[in-house]
Amino acid sequence: MKIVILDGYSVTQEDLNWQQLQTLEGVTDVRIYDRTRADETLERCAEADAVLTNKVVITDEIMAALPRLRYIGVLATGYNVVDGEAARQRGIVVTNIPAYSTASVAQLVFAHLLNITNSVAHYAEAASRWPASPDFTWSDTALTELAGKTFGIFGLGAIGTAVAHIALAFGMHVLAVSSREPEALPAGVTKASWTTVLREADVLSLHCPLTTDTREMINGETLSQMKSTAILINTGRGPLVNEQAVATALQEGRLAAYCADVLSTEPPSTDNPLLSAPRCYLTPHIAWATREARQRLIGIAVTNLRAFIERKPVNVVNR
Predict the structure, then answer these.
(1) Prediction pTM value
(2) Which is catalytic among the residues 40, 221, 266, 292?
(3) Is residue 61 annotated as part of the catalytic site, yes or no?
(4) 243 tagged catalytic
(5) Three-state SS at 174
(6) Residue ranges of domains in the chain, CATH in brackets
C-alpha cells in the first residue's frame, strides 16, 4: 500500500515522527509532505492507495482523478475537508481521529480564563515594577475569584464534559445546554435553556459542532442577552460567532472579554476585527497541539489505517 501524507508537519512539528506508520505491515511506500497547496494535491496523490490529510481539501473532482484511492484518513476530529458522500459513492473509506485532544483543549479553556481573572501574563511581564511598590504587594488590575461564579457550556460532548469537571473543581456553578437528559449529565451540572445560560453565565464556553443551527450562534442578539461582565470563550469553531458583533460588543463595553483559539478564517486576514478589539485574547489554534495530544493523534491514525488494511475499518465517518 502506498500512502501520501499531505500536511504532516502540523502534527509532527519538530518533536514527533511518522515511524509507526512507516513500519506498519502492508505499507510499502510513505511519502510525507510538510504542506501541500491545492494545486499540488492531485499530482502528489496520483499513485496513492491511501491519503492522510489534516486541512488539505479532498473534493469529488480530486477523487475522480485518483482511481487507486481507497482510503482517506483525516488527521483531525472534524472531517469537513473531505466530501464524505462522494467518497462513499466511490467506495472510499473516510476516517477521523476522535477524542484525542479532549484534555488539552479543556486545559486551554482554563489557561485563557485564568489569564483574565488573575492577569498572569500582565503581572509576569510587569514584574520589574514590583520593587518600586511601597507595600509587599503590587497590583493595578482587578483580580477575580472563580468560586461561586456561573460557568455556562454549550455542548456537553467529551470536551464540554471535561471542561465542566474542571469548572466544578474550581467551585463554580455549571449550567449546560445539552441534548442529554438531566439525569444523564455529570453530577453537579445543571441542564438549562440557551436563554438561561446566556442570561446567567459569568463565563460562557462553546463546545458544539459547527452546523447550520450553530453558525453565528453568538451574534448581536445573543450578545445583548449576556451580562456585560461575562467572559466568552470559543475553542470550538470560529464561525460559531459573528466576529464583527463580538468586536463591537468589546469596543462598547458590553462584553468583558473574548477568548478564542479558532477564527472564521485561519490564518486570519489582517483586517479581522478581533485582531484589534480590546480585551480580546487570541491563540493561533493551538488547543489541540500539545505533544501528548499529537502523539495520541498519530497513534490513532496508525490504528485506523491498520484496521482498514485488515478490512475491519474503525472511526469511519462516511458509512
Answers:
(1) 0.92
(2) 266
(3) no
(4) no
(5) strand
(6) 2-100+291-309 (3.40.50.720), 102-282 (3.40.50.720)
